[in-house]
Amino acid sequence: MAKAKSKSKAPAKVTKKQTHSKAGNIQLETRLSKEQQLELFRWMILNREFDNKISLLYRRGLVIGAAFSSLGQEASSCASAYAVGEGDIIAPMIRNAGSTLVKGLPPRDFLANYMYRINSPTGGRDGNTHMGDLRYGIIAPISMLGASIALASGYVLAARMKGEKRVALTWIGEGSTSTGEFHEDVNFAAVKKAPLVVIIENNQYAYSTPSETQCLAEKFSDKAIGYGIKHAVTIDGNDANAVYETSKDAVDRARAGEGTQMFEVLTFRRKGHAEHDPAKYVPEEIFKYWEERDPLLRYGAYLKELKYIDDDGISDMTEKVKAEIEEAEEWVMAQPKPDPATVMQGVYADQPHPAHEDDDFLYQRKYR
Ligand SMILES: Cc1ncc(C[n+]2csc(CCOP(=O)(O)OP(=O)(O)O)c2C)c(N)n1
Ligand SMILES: [Mg+2]
Questions:
Q1: Total Cβ atoms within 10 A of residue 221
Q2: What DSSP designation does 173 have?
Q3: pLDDT exceeds cutoff 60 at 42
Q4: What per-residue confidence (pLDDT) applies to 125?
Q5: Which residue, 62, 76, 176, 277, shows the most beta carbons closer than 10 Å to its own?
Q6: Strands (DSSP E) along 207-266, which ranges?
Q7: All domains of the chain in start order, with CATH
Q8: If you average pLDDT over residues 77-97, what whole number do you get?
Q9: What is the 269 CA–ligand 2 centroid distance (Å)?
């Protein structure tokens, strides 16, 4: 009689599904095509090179306002904005140059604003990032921290009354989640089920204040439960795919009528609050830790592992982006600054904006 095959007592070998790439530790599951991932990578490079240019111009005394860098936060800024549609609205904060560029503002317009030129979104009235352009669905950042949430939710609630399915996306620093305005605005948006997505960018510091010294919540996403907001996760903010996927899910839920969404991205501000701040209060080893987790290096390594791009391809992409910024700078340098005699123009809604009075299209957009 044939001997019965003995059943192995050893447990069946379970091969754990690989969820992250070996190189770069990037989330593998994504709806983004190869082309879209390469496009997103290019946006992140543009974000970085744009910041580098602003930093240089600031040092040359050509930027009169504060210059805010998003070094290290490019995945959080770009991959989230990549998840909204053309008819949607974004309300960026000072560190969201990447989001603003992804939403469509040409780099030269942004640069012109930093250099206070007439042909810029504020017509030379602002010397940094406090500018928007509703043609592209961009609401200007508001200096009073938290206030952008009310504006963004007001915009989409008004749109809903008109039967439009617009979603708004806004970002807020972890420090700003401790303001009264944050609480009031999120509570209002949530109870009205505003189709709004609030991303808490936890970059560990609010100016010189480390996050653990201003809030005892274990995770900033825990704040969502107090407003009845569900699905509030905390994710790796330096993983562009994770940021995109979480943002897209939140945008889709908001559009489907599930109300205000919120989640937290963990990242790090690898410069001072602004260019004038050397950030000596941040221990060197913390900078080093986050430098090793740089979002561009990580995404680049992942794209190379997938063979979507190689080192030459990355250099080529970077050079093209740099050339685009140089061209923008050249154009900006040739633009006039506002005439001081026009300083009172554009203050009230019934007055033409000095920058736009000759431009019918811009005028219509601004004051319609
Ligand atoms: C209501 C209010 N309080 C204080 C300030 C001054 N201020 C501007 S940015 C900032 C730090 C914000 O930190 P965080 O929210 O973490 O954003 P991050 O700069 O780190 O992106 C402070 C205190 C302000 N603009 N508005
Ligand atoms: Mg912060």
A1: 22
A2: E
A3: yes
A4: 85
A5: 76
A6: 209-210, 234-236, 261-266
A7: 73-269 (3.40.50.970)
A8: 97
A9: 7
Instruction: List all residues whose CB is within 6 A of at least one atom of ligand 1.
Output: 95, 143-145, 173-176, 179, 201, 203, 205-207, 269, 273
| pTM of this structure | 0.92
Confidence at residue 215, expressed as pLDDT on a 0 to 100 scale: 97
How do residues 243-260 score in pLDDT, each as one tens digit? 999 999 999 999 999 999
Which residues crowd ion ligand 2, with CB under 5 Å?
Answer: 173-175, 203, 206
Closest-lying ligand 1 atom to the alpha carbon of residue 176: 15
Mutate to test the pocket of ligand 1, among 73, 129, 142, 145 (most ligand atoms within 8 A of CB): 145
Judged by DSSP in three states, 93 sits in coil
Ligand 1 atom nearest the C-alpha of 177 is: 15
pLDDT digits (tens, 9 = 90+) for 108-135: 999 999 999 999 999 888 888 899 999 9
CA 77 to ligand 2 centroid distance, Å:
13
Alpha carbon distance 174, 169 (integer Å): 16
Rounded distance between C-alpha atoms, residue 288 and residue 291, angstroms: 5
